[in-house]
Amino acid sequence: MPAASGAPVEVPTDVLQRISALCLALPEVTVRVDEARIDGRSTAHSFDVRKRSFCLLVAVRKVSGEPSPLVVVRADLAERAALLEVGHPYFAPRAGRDRIGVRLTGDTDWEEIRDLLTDSYWRVAPKKLAARLVQPPDTHQGHDTSPPA
Length: 149
Hints:
Helix content is about 30%, strand content about 25%. It is built from four helices and six strands. The chain has a six-stranded antiparallel β-sheet with strand order 1-2-3-4-6-5, covered by helices on one side. Strand 5 (about 90) and strand 6 (about 100-105) form a beta hairpin.
């Protein structure tokens, strides 16, 4: 049964737990929760490193009334352009040119989400914190849009 249009929208608990686990596994990440709700949008969860956001998790109301969770992360401009060419589940958020949005659905590639979150963290974290990560963002295979050699 669809939720009433006036009912609050919330990020599904399983999605919040999964994104939280991925983000909080990174060094010195904190969470800010913005309880202010905009009509049709959930509470916003911002995952930050030293007060700089690298991941925003919210849900918006679908036409059916059900929540549609999404994340907004920072991305390299070339990677952003490549992902926007792919289309769904990627979109250009209003947040800025260096960000990419991803709609989280039942067929979400969670390894891809982990890679996007890690890359985004890398972009805002101080160098000493970023150096604690095992793999630099340009060495993983998740975002390589070139054909195999």
